[in-house]
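Justification of resources, computational component.

The compute hours requested in this renewal are based largely on the per-chain cost of generating structure records like the one below. Each record pairs the submitted sequence with a full structure-token output. That output is archived, and it is also reused by downstream analysis tasks.
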Amino acid sequence: MRLRVFIFCFSILATLFFSTNEGLAVPTSGRVVEAGSGDPIEGAVVQVQASPVQTTTDASGEFVIDIPQQPFFILTAAKIGYVNNASFDSVLGATDVIIELSPVPTEANPEEPTFQSPMACASCHLVHYADWAGGGKERPSRHSTAGQNRWVRDLYDGSGTEGGEAGYVFKRDSPILSDEVNPTGLHRSGLCAECHLPSLAAVAEMPGTVELSDATAGSIEGTPERMAYEDGIFCGICHKIRDVNDNLGRTAFFGNIEPTLTDPGLQYGPLFDAVIDIAAQMRAAVNPLHKDSKVCAGCHQYNMDHDFDNDFEEVGSPPGQTTYAEWLSSPYAVVGEDYRTCQDCHMPPAEGEDDVVICVFGGPARSATALHSHRFEGTTLPYLQAAVELVIDASRIGDLLHAKVDVSNVGAGHNFPTGVSVRNAMLVVRAKTDSDTQLPHLEGTSLIPYWGGVGDEPDDYGDTPGRGFAKILRSHDDRERVLFIDAIELVENTQIPPMGTDTSEYWFDLSGLESEDLELSAEIIYRRAWKDLAEAKGWIGGVDGQGYPYEGDVLVKSVTVELTGEGPTPTPTAPIGCDSGYYLLDAFGGRHPVGSPPVITGSLYFGYNIARDLERARTGGPTSLLQHDLAVLDGAGAVHFIASPTQTIEQDFFFPITEEFPGGRAVDLSMTSDSLGYWVLTDFGGIYRAGSAKGEDESLVPNTDTLGLGLDIPLEGSLRDPSFPSPGGANLRAVSLLVIDEDGDSTAEGYVILDSMGGHHPFDNEGVVIDPGSSSGSEINSPDRLLDPTAYLWPFFTGLDIARDLELHPMGTGVVILDGWGGVHPVPVDEESNPVYFANNRVSNEDNTPLSPVGLPYITSGFDNPSTEEDESDEEFYGRDAASIFMDLEFTSCEGGLYTLDRFGGVFGLGAARENPDDPIPPFAGSPYFFPDQLAVDAEFFE
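The structure output for this chain reads:
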């Protein structure tokens, strides 16, 4: 054993004499090489220990570092894949410093245990151990008791608590234990041990076969089974993680955590200058992964293999935990002012004096921020309270009391609530007079789902005013609210995403009580388990599965508003400017509010590239008081309402998400005026109807699926502009749909399909191709002329795949077409009386003076799409059209303005969309920008 304890005392002396006098730094140089071979190591970080002074080695392994004058210092070196090391006898100005790094071993040592006991770590890292294990007034961290968790064992085999055999028990009741449901026999272990007994799961001969019952309180003292039970997730579990791969659908060690189990003493950490080498005990190796949220994804991101083919990531795999994906799609994951990792919140740095020594035996004196909590707090009351904000806006409207309640996820980097599917939360809203008369609620009021508890008990909130926030999974035997292991599909997810707000409306009857003083209250209640499940197993009224007090309901926030009988009704504040803001849709289904649009929240998130279009809708409330909503179209043709996910519209068409034509080909959505129906366009040209748009007719508009468009029509040969090179993936397909419904009765007078070359294809509502000249005799700006193929001159991009969007002016009299380079093309182009002429950025069609000297961006050079293996930016091969980036066009709510959107999330305005006529950037704050990823899909603007 090589023991280098002396370096700690030496480094303490170094800090006593450390000086950072500017102008006195002395260049010191040397090489970092591989131990044994002497080969140079490029990219190694060389650092003066416990200081910010560092550099990296070049291709020859050489470095030069400017070290402030001081009598003592330690020069360290580190690189991923190597054990950290140092030069302990370097002097200022030396030119021959050599630091050798040993590669992380790849061959296992069967004579040594794979994991060290956490007590071995406690001998040096007492503060971290105390955080993790608990002591004094502090309870053990939930990591340390993961193996003992009595609730998990109750759900697994009923062995955790005295009443654990009541209610659902996996090993007795799960449908996946039957050969009929699960003929392959996979996953019958329950997969619980993957996260709750990771030290056993990591060394299992067959992945996914370790049972939770393999480690119990009765396991023999000193065995790996006893350590797994008693210590759960301990030091070595995290600090041996070399990588977390991208198979994030699988559970923990079953698929995505890649530990280094070849060296018992090897421990990874985030410090480049941590140097210690005690064989089989502690060998420090740097790994920045330990400062990255992805290291937590191993246990906090997984799906269920619902069809037992060992593929956890295929479309339709029900989610178990999606906490990492929730963070990844949030503003917190974007590097910038709001960037936060899991560790920033759940492992906060210490506060107080600097000169902290992390090891009890000594070591370099560091900043206090280098000492991070290992308590891993999460659902404690302070964390829950910091996560959400509750706001009530209440007013009298005649004999009605109206309330709008916002629940905002302001402090969690993931959904509220998050985690396993038994977690749930509720917003409870009550209204009463000052004499305690409860006000009856009216139709249109949001109600808490049945799972809040239906009955006469004080904590039965189901079917009363409020909201429920939860993830609902359905099983093979049609049970709902099941654990992921039994799930076959996600039924509903109403969790609130990070920085999202859930808005709900409430209506109470004041008949005969108009002069009474009123009290409106709202509470946020959090539950660690479903109420009926907790009651069945006797969990309420004691401690939870890990020893924390549990009374069932946790009151997170409470707000009360009082209204006097004579109080005035507040007048809504009118929005400032032409538009108040917009929602941007990303390819995974996330909606990003920008500016101050109406608050529309919901937890829809696909987690993979399937979102295709975003449209405004109106849902909820009494008929005369419909509220703002958003509808998201996915590639399969399904339409999802955000604020009112239960408002589904029956449809009988579906385009499977496959690679084969015409699978998963929905591309554009148009809502009916009543928001009770819609039209969906497919890339092969088919127009499909649902709800009020369908009427008595079949869903497919006849003949529209015979255009011969789609991804099987590449732009080659005579179709391709001969001045452009190989098409590089360019193809002819339907890209946008125009629906003409002049009287707003949800029955179309006609349709125009735009293809990717700019061709327009007009049909009437029966699918009959409209003949040229059909609009003769119509008024000059009649919408009928948009259906006449020869009434107006339309742009056509011969041989180019650049047409992207077609938008109807709010007055219905003209359209504007967007090309992929950012060009906008008004139709008609020669009628000054038509309101779209301004899109040419000129005063009028007779006066070519520009409206603004600064037009819209126009980019014809290629952009590489990082989601493909090719580099489409090579326009010599692909052509400038193959990777054009502009995607969406929208009109302003007032006259004379429009917006364009590119795939990176850039939004640009023209005319009334600008705050400054010469600035194309709209005046909205908080816009996401996804570069280099082309994730932006669509935007919807609000007045």
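Residues 179 and 185 are 7 Å apart (CA to CA). Confidence is low (pLDDT under 50) at residues 1-23, 567-577, 621-625.
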